[in-house]
Amino acid sequence: MDGIVLINKEKGWTSFDVVAKLRNLFQVKKIGHTGTLDPDAEGVLVICVGKATKAVNHMAKHDKTYEAVLLLGKRTDTQDVSGKVLEEAPVTVTGEAVRKAALSFVGGYDQIPPMYSAKKVKGKKLYELAREGIAIEREPRHVEILKLQIQSVELPRMRFLVSCSGGTYIRTLCEDIGRAAGCPACMESLLRTKVGAYSLSEAHTIGEVEAVLREGNAESLFLPIPEVEQAG
């Protein structure tokens, strides 16, 4: 089995859980994903199987698109609502101030990766250090917010669409928007709708994958490895 499988990751699954499950279902050794989704996040997870795993690092750089909900009035250690609350404050900022702050991030900016992330420093994942109560200095990383479209502002929440470069943390963007607006903030929900040319409409839940395999149609799940990835 060689190719790309698009998974619609559901809440509660880690990206590692998905890879482990598919490794067992497909009975393969070479399998990986092109970009982590947090357990509470949903949406497109691009899975590379067999020869396609050679393209993982290249495809991780693909632009991504998300639907997100920012929650004002609360800042957490994980930068989303699942974490320990570090700061709470009444939401006294206006909706217009939040809009202005959010749109100010369109373009490039230097983003500090969160401690609760899979990014490695000296061979150890940051979230492993965070769970030990260790916080270290992280080098800012330049990211690109290609497009940010505000869908609604109903304080204390703002719903928005964002397209960004690979490696951008939307949790961190939410906290940064809050800081720019003068109010603590975190991410309440996240749905990844697109990775490069791959969209959510093409993706399968784990349950759907199991059903297809029971029918003996495994080949229908696989998309070809793009030529650019094969050449790389």
Walk me through this protein's architecture.
- This protein has two domains: 3-61 and 196-231, Pseudouridine synthase (2-Layer Sandwich), CATH 3.30.2350.10; 64-194, Pseudouridine synthase, CATH 3.30.2350.10.
- The protein has seven helices and 13 strands.
- The chain has helices at 15-26, 56-59, 95-103, 126-131, 170-181, 206-214, 227-231, and strands spanning 3-9, 31-33, 42-49, 64-72, 74-76, 85-88, 107-111, 120-121, 124-125, 141-154, 157-164, 185-195, 198-199.
- Strand 8 (120-121) and strand 9 form a beta hairpin.
- Helix 3 (95-103) crosses helix 5.
- It is globular.
- The model has no long low-confidence stretch (mean pLDDT 93).
Quick rundown:
The protein has 232 residues and is α+β, with helices and mostly antiparallel strands.
Set out the fold topology:
Layout: E1 3-9, H1 15-26, E2 31-33, E3 42-49, H2 56-59, E4 64-72, E5 74-76, E6 85-88, H3 95-103, E7 107-111, E8 120-121, E9 124-125, H4 126-131, E10 141-154, E11 157-164, H5 170-181, E12 185-195, E13 198-199, H6 206-214, H7 227-231
Parallel strand pairs: 3-12
Antiparallel strand pairs: 1-3, 2-3, 4-11, 4-12, 5-6, 7-10, 8-9, 10-11, 12-13
Helix pairs in contact: 3-5
Number of domains: 2
Global structural class? alpha+beta
Radius of gyration based on Cα positions: 18 Å
Q: Give the total of beta strands.
A: 13
Give the overall shape.
globular
- Largest sheet properties: 9 strands, mixed
In the CATH scheme, the class of the largest domain would be Alpha Beta
H-E order: EHEEHEEEHEEEHEEHEEHH
Average pLDDT over all residues? 93
- Assign the CATH topology of the largest domain: Pseudouridine synthase
